[in-house]
DNA sequence: AGTCTGGCTCAAGACGCG
DNA sequence: GTTTCTTGAGCCAGACT
DNA sequence: CGCGTCC
Protein backbone atom coordinates (compact mmCIF):
# COMPACT_ATOMS: atom_id res chain seq x y z
CA UNK A 1 0.00 0.00 0.00
CA UNK A 2 1.31 3.37 -1.04
CA UNK A 3 0.99 6.27 1.35
CA UNK A 4 1.89 9.96 1.11
CA UNK A 5 3.52 11.63 4.09
CA UNK A 6 4.05 15.30 4.94
CA UNK A 7 7.81 15.35 5.41
CA UNK A 8 8.11 18.71 7.16
CA UNK A 9 5.79 17.65 9.90
CA UNK A 10 7.78 14.49 10.52
CA UNK A 11 11.07 16.35 10.60
CA UNK A 12 9.62 18.83 13.04
CA UNK A 13 8.52 16.09 15.39
CA UNK A 14 11.84 14.34 15.20
CA UNK A 15 13.74 17.52 15.96
CA UNK A 16 11.62 18.06 19.04
CA UNK A 17 11.34 14.53 20.30
CA UNK A 18 14.60 12.82 19.47
CA UNK A 19 16.78 14.06 22.24
CA UNK A 20 19.12 12.95 24.92
CA UNK A 21 19.31 14.92 28.12
CA UNK A 22 17.37 17.71 26.50
CA UNK A 23 19.68 18.19 23.55
CA UNK A 24 19.29 16.98 20.01
CA UNK A 25 21.49 14.17 18.81
CA UNK A 26 24.48 15.50 16.91
CA UNK A 27 27.60 14.37 15.10
CA UNK A 28 30.98 15.44 16.46
CA UNK A 29 30.97 18.67 14.52
CA UNK A 30 27.74 19.62 16.26
CA UNK A 31 25.39 19.03 13.33
CA UNK A 32 21.96 17.78 14.34
CA UNK A 33 21.15 14.21 13.37
CA UNK A 34 17.80 13.74 15.14
CA UNK A 35 15.81 14.17 11.94
CA UNK A 36 17.90 11.57 10.11
CA UNK A 37 17.62 9.14 12.98
CA UNK A 38 13.85 9.48 13.02
CA UNK A 39 13.40 9.34 9.27
CA UNK A 40 15.67 6.32 8.88
CA UNK A 41 14.10 4.08 11.48
CA UNK A 42 10.49 5.10 11.01
CA UNK A 43 10.71 4.57 7.27
CA UNK A 44 12.22 1.12 7.76
CA UNK A 45 9.40 0.30 10.09
CA UNK A 46 6.80 1.36 7.57
CA UNK A 47 8.41 -0.57 4.74
CA UNK A 48 8.62 -3.67 6.90
CA UNK A 49 4.88 -3.46 7.40
CA UNK A 50 4.35 -3.57 3.66
CA UNK A 51 3.78 0.16 3.32
CA UNK A 52 5.37 2.17 0.55
CA UNK A 53 5.85 5.71 1.81
CA UNK A 54 6.29 8.74 -0.43
CA UNK A 55 7.45 11.89 1.34
CA UNK A 56 6.13 15.28 0.32
CA UNK A 57 8.10 18.42 1.18
CA UNK A 58 6.60 21.88 1.61
CA UNK A 59 7.20 24.65 -0.87
CA UNK A 60 6.53 28.31 -0.28
CA UNK A 61 3.62 29.19 1.97
CA UNK A 62 0.72 31.06 0.35
CA UNK A 63 0.68 34.82 0.85
CA UNK A 64 -2.47 34.62 2.89
CA UNK A 65 -0.59 32.66 5.50
CA UNK A 66 1.59 35.67 6.24
CA UNK A 67 -0.46 36.82 9.22
CA UNK A 68 -0.37 33.42 10.84
CA UNK A 69 3.35 33.06 10.24
CA UNK A 70 3.96 36.47 11.76
CA UNK A 71 2.15 35.33 14.88
CA UNK A 72 4.30 32.26 15.09
CA UNK A 73 7.44 34.32 14.67
CA UNK A 74 6.27 36.50 17.51
CA UNK A 75 5.73 33.53 19.76
CA UNK A 76 9.15 32.31 18.81
CA UNK A 77 10.75 35.60 19.75
CA UNK A 78 9.02 35.46 23.08
CA UNK A 79 10.28 31.96 23.71
CA UNK A 80 13.74 33.14 22.75
CA UNK A 81 13.65 35.79 25.45
CA UNK A 82 12.32 33.38 28.03
CA UNK A 83 15.02 30.95 27.08
CA UNK A 84 17.70 33.53 27.55
CA UNK A 85 16.29 34.47 30.94
CA UNK A 86 16.14 30.84 32.00
CA UNK A 87 19.68 30.24 30.84
CA UNK A 88 20.98 33.22 32.76
CA UNK A 89 19.16 32.03 35.83
CA UNK A 90 20.85 28.70 35.34
CA UNK A 91 24.25 30.26 35.26
CA UNK A 92 23.49 32.08 38.45
CA UNK A 93 22.07 29.16 40.35
CA UNK A 94 23.75 26.32 38.49
CA UNK A 95 20.63 24.21 38.80
CA UNK A 96 16.89 24.29 38.88
CA UNK A 97 15.78 25.76 35.61
CA UNK A 98 17.22 23.08 33.43
CA UNK A 99 13.79 21.86 32.48
CA UNK A 100 12.71 25.38 31.62
CA UNK A 101 15.68 25.78 29.34
CA UNK A 102 14.74 22.50 27.74
CA UNK A 103 11.13 23.52 27.35
CA UNK A 104 11.86 26.84 25.68
CA UNK A 105 14.45 25.21 23.51
CA UNK A 106 11.84 22.85 22.16
CA UNK A 107 9.59 25.77 21.41
CA UNK A 108 12.30 27.33 19.24
CA UNK A 109 12.67 24.37 16.93
CA UNK A 110 12.16 25.00 13.27
CA UNK A 111 12.78 22.92 10.20
CA UNK A 112 15.45 24.45 7.98
CA UNK A 113 16.28 23.97 4.37
CA UNK A 114 19.33 22.00 5.44
CA UNK A 115 17.27 19.55 7.48
CA UNK A 116 15.04 18.95 4.48
CA UNK A 117 17.96 18.51 2.08
CA UNK A 118 19.63 16.01 4.37
CA UNK A 119 16.44 14.04 4.75
CA UNK A 120 16.04 13.95 0.96
CA UNK A 121 19.56 12.66 0.55
CA UNK A 122 18.83 9.93 3.07
CA UNK A 123 15.57 8.95 1.35
CA UNK A 124 17.35 8.84 -1.97
CA UNK A 125 19.86 6.35 -0.56
CA UNK A 126 17.06 4.32 0.98
CA UNK A 127 15.27 4.08 -2.35
CA UNK A 128 12.22 5.96 -1.09
CA UNK A 129 10.59 8.52 -3.41
CA UNK A 130 9.95 12.12 -2.42
CA UNK A 131 8.30 15.14 -4.00
CA UNK A 132 8.81 18.87 -3.70
CA UNK A 133 5.39 20.44 -3.47
CA UNK A 134 5.14 23.94 -4.93
CA UNK A 135 3.18 25.11 -1.89
CA UNK A 136 1.41 23.29 0.94
CA UNK A 137 2.45 19.66 1.32
CA UNK A 138 -0.98 18.61 2.54
CA UNK A 139 -2.54 19.89 -0.67
CA UNK A 140 -0.12 17.91 -2.79
CA UNK A 141 -0.73 14.79 -0.69
CA UNK A 142 -4.46 15.15 -1.20
CA UNK A 143 -3.95 15.47 -4.94
CA UNK A 144 -1.90 12.27 -5.01
CA UNK A 145 -4.69 10.42 -3.25
CA UNK A 146 -7.34 11.84 -5.56
CA UNK A 147 -5.34 10.80 -8.60
CA UNK A 148 -4.92 7.30 -7.23
CA UNK A 149 -1.15 7.61 -7.09
CA UNK A 150 -1.24 6.62 -3.43
CA UNK A 151 -3.88 4.98 -1.29
CA UNK A 152 -3.93 7.54 1.51
CA UNK A 153 -2.23 10.41 3.27
CA UNK A 154 -0.70 9.60 6.64
CA UNK A 155 -0.87 12.70 8.81
CA UNK A 156 -2.13 14.08 12.08
CA UNK A 157 -3.29 17.20 10.33
CA UNK A 158 -6.97 17.32 9.47
CA UNK A 159 -6.34 19.99 6.85
CA UNK A 160 -5.71 17.15 4.44
CA UNK A 161 -9.45 16.47 4.48
CA UNK A 162 -10.21 20.08 3.68
CA UNK A 163 -8.01 19.74 0.63
CA UNK A 164 -10.18 16.84 -0.45
CA UNK A 165 -7.98 13.92 0.56
CA UNK A 166 -10.25 10.90 0.32
CA UNK A 167 -8.45 8.66 2.78
CA UNK A 168 -6.52 9.87 5.80
CA UNK A 169 -4.56 7.73 8.22
CA UNK A 170 -3.79 8.86 11.73
CA UNK A 171 -1.22 7.37 14.05
CA UNK A 172 0.48 5.29 11.43
CA UNK A 173 3.57 5.14 13.63
CA UNK A 174 3.53 1.71 15.12
CA UNK A 175 5.48 2.19 18.26
CA UNK A 176 2.56 4.11 19.56
CA UNK A 177 0.10 1.76 17.96
CA UNK A 178 0.36 -0.32 21.08
CA UNK A 179 -1.43 2.41 22.91
CA UNK A 180 -3.49 3.91 20.13
CA UNK A 181 -5.08 2.20 17.13
CA UNK A 182 -4.54 3.43 13.61
CA UNK A 183 -7.47 5.50 12.46
CA UNK A 184 -8.65 5.53 8.88
CA UNK A 185 -10.88 8.42 7.84
CA UNK A 186 -12.79 8.38 4.60
CA UNK A 187 -13.70 11.84 3.48
CA UNK A 188 -16.89 10.82 1.74
CA UNK A 189 -18.11 9.11 4.90
CA UNK A 190 -17.24 12.13 6.98
CA UNK A 191 -19.24 14.34 4.63
CA UNK A 192 -22.07 11.86 4.75
CA UNK A 193 -21.99 11.87 8.52
CA UNK A 194 -22.07 15.65 8.66
CA UNK A 195 -24.55 15.88 5.81
CA UNK A 196 -22.40 18.41 4.00
CA UNK A 197 -20.78 18.61 0.59
CA UNK A 198 -17.14 19.44 -0.01
CA UNK A 199 -17.62 23.18 -0.47
CA UNK A 200 -19.76 23.42 2.64
CA UNK A 201 -17.09 21.52 4.53
CA UNK A 202 -14.47 24.00 3.37
CA UNK A 203 -16.58 26.91 4.57
CA UNK A 204 -17.02 25.14 7.87
CA UNK A 205 -13.26 24.72 8.28
CA UNK A 206 -12.71 28.40 7.52
CA UNK A 207 -15.12 29.30 10.29
CA UNK A 208 -13.39 26.94 12.68
CA UNK A 209 -10.15 28.76 12.08
CA UNK A 210 -7.64 27.87 9.42
CA UNK A 211 -4.14 29.22 8.87
CA UNK A 212 -5.35 31.64 6.22
CA UNK A 213 -7.86 33.84 7.99
CA UNK A 214 -9.10 34.87 11.38
CA UNK A 215 -12.29 33.33 12.66
CA UNK A 216 -15.51 34.88 13.92
CA UNK A 217 -15.46 35.65 17.63
CA UNK A 218 -18.09 33.70 19.45
CA UNK A 219 -18.46 31.04 16.81
CA UNK A 220 -16.92 27.73 17.75
CA UNK A 221 -17.56 24.18 16.57
CA UNK A 222 -21.20 23.98 17.66
CA UNK A 223 -22.40 27.23 16.18
CA UNK A 224 -20.32 26.76 13.06
CA UNK A 225 -21.98 23.43 12.31
CA UNK A 226 -25.36 24.92 13.04
CA UNK A 227 -24.72 27.87 10.74
CA UNK A 228 -23.41 25.88 7.82
CA UNK A 229 -26.28 23.42 8.03
CA UNK A 230 -28.95 26.07 7.97
CA UNK A 231 -27.38 28.43 5.43
CA UNK A 232 -25.03 26.18 3.40
CA UNK A 233 -22.51 28.90 2.51
CA UNK A 234 -20.48 31.67 4.10
CA UNK A 235 -22.21 34.27 1.92
CA UNK A 236 -25.63 33.36 3.30
CA UNK A 237 -24.29 33.05 6.79
CA UNK A 238 -22.90 36.56 6.64
CA UNK A 239 -26.22 37.84 5.29
CA UNK A 240 -28.16 36.34 8.14
CA UNK A 241 -25.74 36.59 11.00
CA UNK A 242 -26.43 38.90 13.92
CA UNK A 243 -23.24 40.88 13.48
CA UNK A 244 -23.71 42.66 16.76
CA UNK A 245 -23.26 39.42 18.61
CA UNK A 246 -20.87 37.88 16.12
CA UNK A 247 -18.79 40.53 14.38
CA UNK A 248 -17.20 39.51 11.10
CA UNK A 249 -13.41 40.03 11.28
CA UNK A 250 -12.12 43.12 9.53
CA UNK A 251 -10.81 42.48 6.02
CA UNK A 252 -12.07 38.94 6.24
CA UNK A 253 -10.58 37.22 3.24
CA UNK A 254 -12.68 34.10 3.30
CA UNK A 255 -13.12 33.96 -0.45
CA UNK A 256 -9.42 33.73 -1.06
CA UNK A 257 -9.00 31.23 1.74
CA UNK A 258 -11.71 29.13 0.17
CA UNK A 259 -9.94 29.27 -3.15
CA UNK A 260 -6.73 28.03 -1.56
CA UNK A 261 -8.58 24.93 -0.42
CA UNK A 262 -10.55 24.43 -3.62
CA UNK A 263 -7.73 25.02 -6.06
CA UNK A 264 -4.44 24.80 -4.23
CA UNK A 265 -1.18 25.20 -6.08
CA UNK A 266 0.03 21.70 -6.82
CA UNK A 267 1.98 19.70 -9.33
CA UNK A 268 -0.23 17.64 -11.61
CA UNK A 269 -0.06 14.17 -10.05
CA UNK A 270 -0.14 12.59 -13.51
CA UNK A 271 3.33 13.97 -14.13
CA UNK A 272 4.64 12.34 -10.98
CA UNK A 273 6.13 8.88 -11.14
CA UNK A 274 6.73 7.36 -7.73
CA UNK A 275 9.43 4.72 -7.71
CA UNK A 276 10.58 2.61 -4.80
CA UNK A 277 14.04 1.26 -5.53
CA UNK A 278 16.76 -0.86 -3.94
CA UNK A 279 18.48 0.73 -0.97
CA UNK A 280 22.11 1.69 -1.48
CA UNK A 281 23.71 0.00 1.51
CA UNK A 282 27.21 1.27 0.88
CA UNK A 283 25.91 4.76 0.23
CA UNK A 284 23.94 4.70 3.46
CA UNK A 285 26.97 3.56 5.43
CA UNK A 286 29.08 6.23 3.83
CA UNK A 287 26.56 8.98 4.53
CA UNK A 288 25.30 8.02 7.97
CA UNK A 289 28.43 6.47 9.43
CA UNK A 290 30.94 8.79 7.81
CA UNK A 291 29.78 12.30 8.63
CA UNK A 292 26.95 11.53 10.97
CA UNK A 293 28.57 8.79 13.03
CA UNK A 294 25.71 6.35 13.11
CA UNK A 295 26.47 2.84 14.27
CA UNK A 296 27.53 0.90 11.17
CA UNK A 297 26.02 -2.39 12.21
CA UNK A 298 22.65 -0.78 12.79
CA UNK A 299 22.74 1.02 9.47
CA UNK A 300 23.67 -2.14 7.57
CA UNK A 301 20.98 -4.00 9.42
CA UNK A 302 18.47 -1.33 8.42
CA UNK A 303 19.55 -1.50 4.79
CA UNK A 304 19.06 -5.26 4.82
CA UNK A 305 15.60 -4.87 6.29
CA UNK A 306 14.70 -2.50 3.46
CA UNK A 307 16.06 -4.92 0.90
CA UNK A 308 14.25 -7.86 2.39
CA UNK A 309 10.90 -6.12 2.79
CA UNK A 310 11.14 -4.91 -0.79
CA UNK A 311 11.53 -8.39 -2.19
CA UNK A 312 8.88 -10.07 -0.10
CA UNK A 313 5.52 -8.70 -1.05
CA UNK A 314 3.93 -9.15 2.32
CA UNK A 315 0.95 -6.96 2.02
CA UNK A 316 -2.30 -7.04 3.85
CA UNK A 317 -0.92 -7.98 7.23
CA UNK A 318 -1.64 -4.42 8.13
CA UNK A 319 -5.33 -4.43 7.41
CA UNK A 320 -6.07 -6.12 10.67
CA UNK A 321 -4.80 -3.07 12.51
CA UNK A 322 -7.04 -0.66 10.70
CA UNK A 323 -10.21 0.63 12.13
CA UNK A 324 -12.37 2.50 9.68
CA UNK A 325 -13.82 5.59 11.21
CA UNK A 326 -16.35 7.57 9.36
CA UNK A 327 -18.03 10.27 11.32
CA UNK A 328 -17.32 10.04 15.02
CA UNK A 329 -16.13 13.48 15.81
CA UNK A 330 -14.39 15.51 13.21
CA UNK A 331 -15.35 18.54 15.23
CA UNK A 332 -12.23 18.05 17.15
CA UNK A 333 -10.55 20.69 15.10
CA UNK A 334 -9.44 23.71 17.07
C1' DA B 1 -28.33 24.72 36.44
C1' DG B 2 -25.90 23.71 31.68
C1' DT B 3 -23.59 25.27 27.17
C1' DC B 4 -20.19 27.19 24.54
C1' DT B 5 -15.95 29.73 23.47
C1' DG B 6 -11.31 31.09 24.04
C1' DG B 7 -7.03 31.25 26.17
C1' DC B 8 -3.87 28.75 28.39
C1' DT B 9 -0.61 24.72 28.84
C1' DC B 10 1.78 20.66 27.34
C1' DA B 11 3.69 17.13 24.32
C1' DA B 12 5.31 15.49 20.17
C1' DG B 13 10.75 8.95 18.33
C1' DA B 14 12.73 4.54 18.02
C1' DC B 15 15.99 0.66 19.47
C1' DG B 16 17.22 -3.10 22.31
C1' DC B 17 18.66 -5.09 26.63
C1' DG B 18 17.04 -7.15 30.83
C1' DG C 1 19.51 37.08 -1.82
C1' DT C 2 17.15 37.93 2.64
C1' DT C 3 13.40 35.23 5.79
C1' DT C 4 10.97 29.88 4.84
C1' DC C 5 7.64 25.10 6.84
C1' DT C 6 3.88 21.07 11.75
C1' DT C 7 -0.10 20.02 15.15
C1' DG C 8 -3.68 18.17 18.64
C1' DA C 9 -5.51 17.59 23.44
C1' DG C 10 -6.97 18.84 27.91
C1' DC C 11 -8.25 22.03 31.47
C1' DC C 12 -10.48 26.00 33.38
C1' DA C 13 -12.32 30.62 33.61
C1' DG C 14 -15.93 33.36 32.14
C1' DA C 15 -19.83 34.85 29.19
C1' DC C 16 -24.04 33.58 27.84
C1' DT C 17 -28.94 31.04 27.79
C1' DC D 1 6.94 -3.56 29.52
C1' DG D 2 10.56 -0.10 31.67
C1' DC D 3 14.28 2.38 30.90
C1' DG D 4 18.84 3.76 29.32
C1' DT D 5 20.62 4.94 24.89
C1' DC D 6 20.93 6.38 20.08
C1' DC D 7 24.54 10.72 17.81
From TrEMBL:
Any one GO CC term of the record: mitochondrion
Single biological process term from Gene Ontology: DNA replication
GO MF, any single term: RNA-DNA hybrid ribonuclease activity
XPG-I domain mapped to chain residues: 124-196
Cell location: Mitochondrion
Keyword DNA-binding annotated: no
Required cofactor(s): Mg(2+)
Keyword Nucleus: yes
SUPFAM superfamilies hit by this protein: 5' to 3' exonuclease, C-terminal subdomain (SSF47807), PIN domain-like (SSF88723)
Record key words, sorted: DNA damage, DNA repair, DNA replication, Endonuclease, Exonuclease, Hydrolase, Magnesium, Metal-binding, Mitochondrion, Nuclease, Nucleus, Phosphoprotein
All copies of domain XPG N-terminal, residue ranges: 1-79
Broad class of the protein's primary localization: mitochondrion
Family the entry assigns: Belongs to the XPG/RAD2 endonuclease family. FEN1 subfamily.
Protein name, as recorded: Cell death-related nuclease 1
Organism: Heterotrigona itama
Biological classification of the source: Eukaryota, Metazoa, Ecdysozoa, Arthropoda, Hexapoda
